[in-house]
Protein backbone atom coordinates (compact mmCIF):
# COMPACT_ATOMS: atom_id res chain seq x y z
CA UNK A 1 0.00 0.00 0.00
CA UNK A 2 2.08 2.52 0.78
CA UNK A 3 5.19 4.52 0.28
CA UNK A 4 7.25 5.94 3.09
CA UNK A 5 10.29 8.13 2.33
CA UNK A 6 12.51 8.16 -0.72
CA UNK A 7 14.83 10.66 -2.39
CA UNK A 8 15.57 12.49 -5.62
CA UNK A 9 18.05 11.07 -8.12
CA UNK A 10 20.94 13.53 -7.92
CA UNK A 11 24.54 13.01 -8.99
CA UNK A 12 26.80 11.58 -6.29
CA UNK A 13 30.20 13.08 -5.58
CA UNK A 14 32.97 10.54 -4.81
CA UNK A 15 34.33 12.70 -1.97
CA UNK A 16 31.03 12.34 -0.12
CA UNK A 17 31.31 8.60 -0.51
CA UNK A 18 34.78 8.51 1.07
CA UNK A 19 33.65 10.71 3.92
CA UNK A 20 30.54 8.78 4.88
CA UNK A 21 31.09 5.17 3.79
CA UNK A 22 32.44 3.94 7.13
CA UNK A 23 29.56 5.58 8.95
CA UNK A 24 27.02 4.00 6.61
CA UNK A 25 28.66 0.58 6.91
CA UNK A 26 28.29 0.88 10.67
CA UNK A 27 24.58 1.59 10.26
CA UNK A 28 24.28 -1.30 7.81
CA UNK A 29 25.78 -3.68 10.39
CA UNK A 30 23.49 -2.33 13.09
CA UNK A 31 20.46 -2.76 10.81
CA UNK A 32 21.32 -6.40 10.18
CA UNK A 33 21.36 -7.08 13.92
CA UNK A 34 18.07 -5.35 14.63
CA UNK A 35 16.08 -5.92 11.45
CA UNK A 36 13.60 -8.31 13.08
CA UNK A 37 12.39 -5.58 15.39
CA UNK A 38 12.50 -2.51 13.15
CA UNK A 39 9.01 -1.27 12.36
CA UNK A 40 7.27 -3.80 14.60
CA UNK A 41 8.49 -2.52 17.96
CA UNK A 42 6.17 0.48 17.76
CA UNK A 43 3.19 -1.67 16.85
CA UNK A 44 1.56 -4.53 18.66
CA UNK A 45 -1.39 -6.84 18.42
CA UNK A 46 -3.13 -7.22 21.75
CA UNK A 47 -4.77 -10.33 23.14
CA UNK A 48 -2.93 -12.90 21.03
CA UNK A 49 -0.97 -15.92 22.22
CA UNK A 50 2.76 -15.87 22.87
CA UNK A 51 3.20 -18.13 19.84
CA UNK A 52 1.39 -15.67 17.57
CA UNK A 53 3.29 -12.76 19.09
CA UNK A 54 6.56 -14.53 18.24
CA UNK A 55 5.40 -15.01 14.65
CA UNK A 56 4.30 -11.38 14.47
CA UNK A 57 7.71 -10.13 15.62
CA UNK A 58 9.71 -12.54 13.47
CA UNK A 59 12.03 -11.52 10.66
CA UNK A 60 9.94 -11.73 7.47
CA UNK A 61 12.73 -11.07 5.00
CA UNK A 62 12.24 -14.46 3.34
CA UNK A 63 9.04 -15.83 1.79
CA UNK A 64 8.70 -19.00 3.97
CA UNK A 65 8.47 -16.86 7.11
CA UNK A 66 5.85 -14.63 5.49
CA UNK A 67 3.82 -17.67 4.47
CA UNK A 68 3.91 -19.00 8.03
CA UNK A 69 2.74 -15.64 9.32
CA UNK A 70 -0.13 -15.47 6.87
CA UNK A 71 -1.27 -19.00 7.71
CA UNK A 72 -1.20 -18.18 11.43
CA UNK A 73 -3.12 -14.91 11.12
CA UNK A 74 -5.48 -15.28 8.14
CA UNK A 75 -8.57 -16.21 10.18
CA UNK A 76 -7.84 -13.49 12.73
CA UNK A 77 -7.46 -10.92 9.96
CA UNK A 78 -10.86 -11.62 8.44
CA UNK A 79 -12.49 -11.26 11.86
CA UNK A 80 -11.25 -7.75 12.66
CA UNK A 81 -13.77 -4.94 12.98
CA UNK A 82 -13.13 -3.18 9.68
CA UNK A 83 -15.89 -2.16 7.29
CA UNK A 84 -14.24 -4.03 4.39
CA UNK A 85 -14.59 -7.32 6.23
CA UNK A 86 -18.20 -6.66 7.19
CA UNK A 87 -19.26 -6.58 3.54
CA UNK A 88 -21.26 -9.65 2.42
CA UNK A 89 -19.20 -12.17 0.49
CA UNK A 90 -21.84 -14.71 -0.54
CA UNK A 91 -21.69 -15.84 -4.15
CA UNK A 92 -17.97 -15.15 -4.54
CA UNK A 93 -15.62 -17.94 -5.58
CA UNK A 94 -11.97 -17.52 -4.59
CA UNK A 95 -8.83 -19.35 -5.66
CA UNK A 96 -5.21 -19.08 -4.50
CA UNK A 97 -2.32 -20.27 -6.67
CA UNK A 98 1.47 -20.43 -6.58
CA UNK A 99 3.18 -20.44 -9.99
CA UNK A 100 6.80 -20.10 -11.08
CA UNK A 101 7.17 -17.32 -13.63
CA UNK A 102 9.58 -17.08 -16.56
CA UNK A 103 12.30 -15.66 -14.30
CA UNK A 104 12.06 -18.66 -11.98
CA UNK A 105 10.28 -16.76 -9.18
CA UNK A 106 7.42 -18.39 -7.31
CA UNK A 107 4.50 -15.95 -7.48
CA UNK A 108 1.41 -15.99 -5.28
CA UNK A 109 -1.86 -14.92 -6.89
CA UNK A 110 -5.53 -14.90 -6.01
CA UNK A 111 -8.80 -14.54 -7.89
CA UNK A 112 -12.33 -13.62 -6.87
CA UNK A 113 -15.16 -14.47 -9.28
CA UNK A 114 -18.94 -13.98 -9.12
CA UNK A 115 -20.73 -17.33 -8.94
CA UNK A 116 -24.31 -16.31 -9.58
CA UNK A 117 -24.15 -13.48 -12.11
CA UNK A 118 -22.76 -12.88 -15.61
CA UNK A 119 -19.21 -11.57 -15.76
CA UNK A 120 -19.16 -7.87 -16.65
CA UNK A 121 -15.38 -7.53 -16.98
CA UNK A 122 -12.12 -8.58 -15.38
CA UNK A 123 -10.13 -6.33 -13.07
CA UNK A 124 -6.39 -6.81 -12.61
CA UNK A 125 -5.15 -5.26 -9.38
CA UNK A 126 -1.69 -3.81 -8.72
CA UNK A 127 -1.01 -3.36 -5.00
CA UNK A 128 1.06 -0.63 -3.39
CA UNK A 129 4.58 -0.54 -2.02
CA UNK A 130 5.14 -2.78 1.03
CA UNK A 131 1.70 -4.38 0.72
CA UNK A 132 0.05 -7.66 -0.26
CA UNK A 133 -3.16 -8.62 -2.02
CA UNK A 134 -4.16 -10.89 0.88
CA UNK A 135 -5.38 -8.46 3.55
CA UNK A 136 -7.32 -5.24 2.97
CA UNK A 137 -7.78 -5.97 -0.70
CA UNK A 138 -9.62 -9.15 0.24
CA UNK A 139 -12.60 -7.03 1.25
CA UNK A 140 -12.34 -4.77 -1.79
CA UNK A 141 -12.11 -7.74 -4.16
CA UNK A 142 -15.15 -9.41 -2.61
CA UNK A 143 -17.16 -6.24 -3.10
CA UNK A 144 -16.09 -5.97 -6.74
CA UNK A 145 -16.79 -9.66 -7.39
CA UNK A 146 -20.23 -9.42 -5.80
CA UNK A 147 -20.87 -6.53 -8.21
CA UNK A 148 -20.23 -8.80 -11.20
CA UNK A 149 -16.50 -8.44 -11.79
CA UNK A 150 -13.77 -11.04 -11.98
CA UNK A 151 -10.86 -9.82 -9.88
CA UNK A 152 -7.25 -10.98 -10.21
CA UNK A 153 -4.25 -9.97 -8.13
CA UNK A 154 -0.73 -11.10 -7.35
CA UNK A 155 1.94 -10.36 -4.79
CA UNK A 156 5.01 -8.91 -6.49
CA UNK A 157 8.39 -10.62 -6.08
CA UNK A 158 9.69 -9.57 -2.67
CA UNK A 159 6.24 -8.75 -1.28
CA UNK A 160 3.48 -10.67 0.44
CA UNK A 161 3.58 -14.40 -0.21
CA UNK A 162 5.74 -14.36 -3.34
CA UNK A 163 9.42 -15.31 -3.35
CA UNK A 164 12.08 -12.67 -2.95
CA UNK A 165 13.75 -10.54 -0.31
CA UNK A 166 11.05 -8.60 1.52
CA UNK A 167 10.66 -5.05 0.28
CA UNK A 168 13.40 -5.30 -2.34
CA UNK A 169 12.85 -4.13 -5.92
CA UNK A 170 16.12 -4.62 -7.83
CA UNK A 171 14.51 -3.51 -11.10
CA UNK A 172 11.23 -1.66 -11.48
CA UNK A 173 11.09 -2.58 -15.16
CA UNK A 174 11.42 -6.28 -14.34
CA UNK A 175 8.64 -5.88 -11.79
CA UNK A 176 6.35 -4.35 -14.41
CA UNK A 177 7.20 -7.16 -16.82
CA UNK A 178 6.42 -9.77 -14.15
CA UNK A 179 2.97 -8.25 -13.65
CA UNK A 180 2.34 -8.07 -17.40
CA UNK A 181 3.32 -11.72 -17.79
CA UNK A 182 0.92 -12.79 -15.06
CA UNK A 183 -2.07 -10.75 -16.24
CA UNK A 184 -1.49 -11.63 -19.90
CA UNK A 185 -1.87 -15.33 -19.10
CA UNK A 186 -5.23 -14.57 -17.51
CA UNK A 187 -6.45 -12.42 -20.39
CA UNK A 188 -5.42 -15.06 -22.93
CA UNK A 189 -7.79 -17.62 -21.43
CA UNK A 190 -10.70 -18.18 -23.78
CA UNK A 191 -13.34 -17.53 -21.13
CA UNK A 192 -12.00 -13.99 -20.59
CA UNK A 193 -11.24 -12.97 -24.16
CA UNK A 194 -14.71 -11.59 -24.83
CA UNK A 195 -15.04 -9.38 -21.76
CA UNK A 196 -13.44 -5.98 -21.10
CA UNK A 197 -10.36 -5.81 -18.90
CA UNK A 198 -9.35 -3.03 -16.53
CA UNK A 199 -6.34 -2.17 -14.43
CA UNK A 200 -6.81 -1.13 -10.81
CA UNK A 201 -3.69 0.34 -9.23
CA UNK A 202 -3.12 1.71 -5.74
CA UNK A 203 -0.21 4.00 -4.83
CA UNK A 204 2.92 2.36 -6.32
CA UNK A 205 0.48 0.04 -8.08
CA UNK A 206 -0.82 3.07 -9.93
CA UNK A 207 2.65 3.69 -11.34
CA UNK A 208 2.87 0.01 -12.30
CA UNK A 209 -0.55 0.17 -14.00
CA UNK A 210 0.51 3.18 -16.07
CA UNK A 211 3.73 1.46 -17.10
CA UNK A 212 1.72 -1.61 -18.12
CA UNK A 213 -0.37 0.69 -20.29
CA UNK A 214 2.75 2.17 -21.91
CA UNK A 215 3.91 -1.34 -22.83
CA UNK A 216 0.40 -2.47 -23.89
CA UNK A 217 -1.26 0.72 -25.15
CA UNK A 218 -4.34 -0.95 -26.69
CA UNK A 219 -4.72 -4.03 -24.50
CA UNK A 220 -6.83 -2.53 -21.72
CA UNK A 221 -10.26 -0.89 -21.61
CA UNK A 222 -9.33 1.50 -18.83
CA UNK A 223 -7.52 2.05 -15.55
CA UNK A 224 -8.73 3.16 -12.12
CA UNK A 225 -5.90 4.66 -10.08
CA UNK A 226 -6.05 5.22 -6.33
CA UNK A 227 -3.53 7.77 -4.99
CA UNK A 228 -1.16 6.84 -7.84
CA UNK A 229 2.56 7.28 -7.30
CA UNK A 230 3.29 9.72 -10.09
CA UNK A 231 5.43 11.86 -7.80
CA UNK A 232 6.49 11.85 -4.15
CA UNK A 233 5.15 14.67 -2.03
CA UNK A 234 7.79 17.35 -1.43
CA UNK A 235 7.67 16.84 2.35
CA UNK A 236 8.85 13.27 1.83
CA UNK A 237 12.20 14.34 0.41
CA UNK A 238 15.28 14.42 2.71
CA UNK A 239 18.12 16.94 2.69
CA UNK A 240 20.00 17.19 -0.61
CA UNK A 241 23.26 15.91 0.90
CA UNK A 242 21.53 12.85 2.34
CA UNK A 243 20.00 12.15 -1.06
CA UNK A 244 23.37 12.24 -2.79
CA UNK A 245 24.99 9.98 -0.22
CA UNK A 246 22.22 7.40 -0.31
CA UNK A 247 22.19 7.24 -4.09
CA UNK A 248 25.89 6.48 -4.15
CA UNK A 249 25.74 3.89 -1.40
CA UNK A 250 22.75 2.17 -3.06
CA UNK A 251 25.11 1.06 -5.80
CA UNK A 252 27.20 -0.79 -3.21
CA UNK A 253 24.58 -1.87 -0.66
CA UNK A 254 21.25 -1.94 -2.54
CA UNK A 255 19.55 -4.31 -0.10
CA UNK A 256 20.38 -2.23 2.97
CA UNK A 257 17.46 -0.83 4.98
CA UNK A 258 18.79 2.68 5.35
CA UNK A 259 16.48 5.27 3.82
CA UNK A 260 15.42 7.71 6.57
CA UNK A 261 11.75 8.13 7.40
CA UNK A 262 9.89 11.00 9.00
CA UNK A 263 8.04 10.14 12.19
CA UNK A 264 4.85 11.90 11.12
CA UNK A 265 4.44 9.67 8.06
CA UNK A 266 2.91 6.76 9.98
CA UNK A 267 0.29 9.11 11.43
CA UNK A 268 -0.70 10.39 8.00
CA UNK A 269 -1.52 7.13 6.27
CA UNK A 270 -4.71 6.19 8.17
CA UNK A 271 -7.03 9.08 9.00
CA UNK A 272 -9.50 7.00 11.01
CA UNK A 273 -7.93 6.41 14.43
CA UNK A 274 -9.75 3.14 15.01
CA UNK A 275 -8.53 1.80 11.67
CA UNK A 276 -5.02 2.96 12.49
CA UNK A 277 -5.11 0.66 15.51
CA UNK A 278 -5.98 -2.26 13.21
CA UNK A 279 -3.01 -1.66 10.89
CA UNK A 280 -0.69 -4.14 12.70
CA UNK A 281 -2.99 -6.97 11.61
CA UNK A 282 -1.54 -6.54 8.13
CA UNK A 283 1.25 -8.87 9.22
CA UNK A 284 2.79 -9.21 5.74
CA UNK A 285 3.22 -5.47 5.31
CA UNK A 286 6.87 -4.49 4.91
CA UNK A 287 7.44 -2.29 7.98
CA UNK A 288 11.19 -1.67 7.95
CA UNK A 289 13.07 1.26 6.50
CA UNK A 290 13.04 1.21 2.70
CA UNK A 291 15.94 -0.61 1.08
CA UNK A 292 18.32 1.66 -0.80
CA UNK A 293 17.95 -0.16 -4.11
CA UNK A 294 14.17 -0.12 -3.87
CA UNK A 295 14.11 3.58 -3.13
CA UNK A 296 16.37 4.34 -6.07
CA UNK A 297 14.26 2.26 -8.46
CA UNK A 298 11.03 3.93 -7.37
CA UNK A 299 12.57 7.35 -7.61
CA UNK A 300 13.71 6.70 -11.17
CA UNK A 301 10.30 5.26 -12.03
CA UNK A 302 8.45 8.35 -10.80
CA UNK A 303 10.82 10.70 -12.59
CA UNK A 304 10.32 8.82 -15.85
CA UNK A 305 6.57 8.66 -15.33
CA UNK A 306 6.36 12.42 -14.80
CA UNK A 307 7.83 12.86 -18.27
CA UNK A 308 5.32 10.54 -19.95
CA UNK A 309 1.95 11.69 -18.63
CA UNK A 310 1.02 13.04 -22.06
CA UNK A 311 1.27 9.51 -23.48
CA UNK A 312 -1.57 8.13 -21.35
CA UNK A 313 -4.31 7.21 -23.81
CA UNK A 314 -6.68 4.80 -22.07
CA UNK A 315 -9.86 5.78 -20.17
CA UNK A 316 -8.90 6.94 -16.69
CA UNK A 317 -10.44 7.22 -13.26
CA UNK A 318 -8.03 9.01 -10.92
CA UNK A 319 -8.78 9.18 -7.18
CA UNK A 320 -6.72 11.02 -4.57
CA UNK A 321 -7.09 12.30 -1.02
CA UNK A 322 -6.53 16.04 -0.81
CA UNK A 323 -4.62 15.61 2.47
CA UNK A 324 -2.31 12.87 1.17
CA UNK A 325 1.29 13.65 2.18
CA UNK A 326 2.72 10.40 0.79
CA UNK A 327 1.96 10.63 -2.92
CA UNK A 328 1.45 14.09 -4.30
CA UNK A 329 -2.18 14.99 -5.18
CA UNK A 330 -0.88 17.67 -7.55
CA UNK A 331 0.68 14.90 -9.64
CA UNK A 332 -2.74 13.30 -10.05
CA UNK A 333 -4.05 16.66 -11.18
CA UNK A 334 -1.18 16.87 -13.66
CA UNK A 335 -1.98 13.38 -14.93
CA UNK A 336 -5.60 14.38 -15.45
CA UNK A 337 -4.62 17.57 -17.28
CA UNK A 338 -1.86 16.09 -19.45
CA UNK A 339 -3.21 12.66 -20.39
CA UNK A 340 -4.21 12.82 -24.04
CA UNK A 341 -7.26 10.63 -23.57
CA UNK A 342 -10.55 12.54 -23.49
CA UNK A 343 -12.35 9.94 -21.38
CA UNK A 344 -10.90 10.77 -17.97
CA UNK A 345 -12.25 11.60 -14.54
CA UNK A 346 -10.54 13.03 -11.45
CA UNK A 347 -12.05 12.53 -7.99
CA UNK A 348 -10.47 14.43 -5.09
CA UNK A 349 -11.65 13.59 -1.58
CA UNK A 350 -11.64 16.42 0.93
CA UNK A 351 -9.49 15.84 4.04
CA UNK A 352 -8.72 12.26 2.96
CA UNK A 353 -5.29 10.74 3.57
CA UNK A 354 -3.32 8.21 1.50
CA UNK A 355 -5.24 4.98 2.13
CA UNK A 356 -8.60 5.77 0.58
CA UNK A 357 -9.85 2.17 0.72
CA UNK A 358 -8.33 1.14 4.04
CA UNK A 359 -7.79 3.96 6.51
CA UNK A 360 -10.59 6.46 5.98
CA UNK A 361 -13.91 6.68 7.84
CA UNK A 362 -16.43 4.11 6.62
CA UNK A 363 -18.43 6.64 4.61
CA UNK A 364 -15.36 7.72 2.64
CA UNK A 365 -14.33 4.13 1.92
CA UNK A 366 -17.82 3.31 0.65
CA UNK A 367 -17.86 6.53 -1.37
CA UNK A 368 -14.60 5.59 -3.10
CA UNK A 369 -15.79 2.02 -3.70
CA UNK A 370 -19.01 3.38 -5.15
CA UNK A 371 -17.10 5.70 -7.48
CA UNK A 372 -14.99 2.78 -8.72
CA UNK A 373 -17.95 0.48 -9.33
CA UNK A 374 -20.00 3.19 -11.04
CA UNK A 375 -17.11 3.98 -13.37
CA UNK A 376 -16.54 0.29 -14.10
CA UNK A 377 -20.24 -0.27 -14.77
CA UNK A 378 -20.26 2.59 -17.25
CA UNK A 379 -17.11 1.48 -19.06
CA UNK A 380 -17.66 -2.27 -19.02
CA UNK A 381 -20.72 -1.73 -21.19
CA UNK A 382 -18.48 -0.21 -23.88
CA UNK A 383 -16.76 -3.45 -24.89
CA UNK A 384 -14.52 -3.13 -27.94
CA UNK A 385 -15.36 0.53 -28.41
CA UNK A 386 -12.06 1.84 -27.07
CA UNK A 387 -9.24 2.52 -29.49
CA UNK A 388 -6.06 4.33 -28.57
CA UNK A 389 -5.78 7.72 -30.30
UniProtKB/TrEMBL annotation:
The chain crosses the membrane at residues 6-27. The keyword Thylakoid does not apply. InterPro entries: AB_hydrolase_1, AB_hydrolase_fold, Hydrolase_4, MAG_DAG_Lipase. Keywords: Membrane, Transmembrane, Transmembrane helix. The keyword RNA-binding does not apply. Residues 119-361 form the Serine aminopeptidase S33 domain. It comes from the Eukaryota. This is Caffeoylshikimate esterase-like. It comes from Vigna radiata var. radiata (Mung bean).
Amino acid sequence: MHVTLFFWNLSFTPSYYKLFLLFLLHIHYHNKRTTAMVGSKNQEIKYISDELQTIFLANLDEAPARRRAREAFKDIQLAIDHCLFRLPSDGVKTKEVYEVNSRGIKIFSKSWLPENSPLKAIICYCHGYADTCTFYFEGVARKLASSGYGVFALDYPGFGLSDGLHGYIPSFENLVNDVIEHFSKIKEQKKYQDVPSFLLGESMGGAIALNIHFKQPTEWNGAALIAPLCKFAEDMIPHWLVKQILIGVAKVLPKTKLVPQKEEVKDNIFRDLNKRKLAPYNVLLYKDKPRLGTALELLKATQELEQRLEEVSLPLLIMHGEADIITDPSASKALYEKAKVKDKKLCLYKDAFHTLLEGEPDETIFHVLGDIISWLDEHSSRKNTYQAP
